[in-house]
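In this notation, each integer encodes one residue's backbone shape. One such record reads:

___
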Amino acid sequence: MQLKWSKQNEKSFFKPIFKLFSAPGLAALFIIRCLLIIGLLFFPLQSTTGWVLISLLGVSLLTASLVTYYGSDGSDQMSMLIIITLILCNLPAFTTGKLRDIGIWFIGLQACLSYTVAGIAKLVSAEWRSGTAIKDVFSTKTYGSKKASLLLQKYPSANRFLCWNVIVMETIFPLCLILPWQYAIVFLIWGFIFHFFTALIMGLNSFFWAFMATYPAIYFINHQMPWHLF
């Protein structure tokens, strides 16, 4: 991970805290983040301790994003959105059941919006419509997989199927909110498989955890809907 802080910062008034923004410092920050997550298993968000833990977790994510050169990706943004929502909707002495419900709705709707926007973006892409995009991505050095790329080159029909499968499922993903649960769960199973294999093949591990964290909210919304399509 490349940091924004250069050697010149060591000579500035930041020197006493410079070690925090070094690579070992960020590693320690990530360890602290793991400990905070473990703590949340024992303290509910409705408690003051739980709220403090989730707030510190948000601070750790924000700190990591501020001291690195590279911009955050969709999983970082989703993780931060979830945590900020949980912080605001569980403020001690101010939170109510209604406010928590609003927060859950916001997280679920944001997840569906993310899928739909991604699907539409792929739909207007000639590479995705022609069925070559996934093969091309797997051929790259950063997100590639030689075995997967060779397999899709050997079976171009599989590449087209995968491309259109992703386009269609992402675009219509919000249907999971208004379909009866026995049909809506198909979208969540698809999402699990999709994120699992992108993590396994492309190394996008953070997307798996960030979007899986929104699925309970989608389940909640589906069961709160006063009506379904049929």
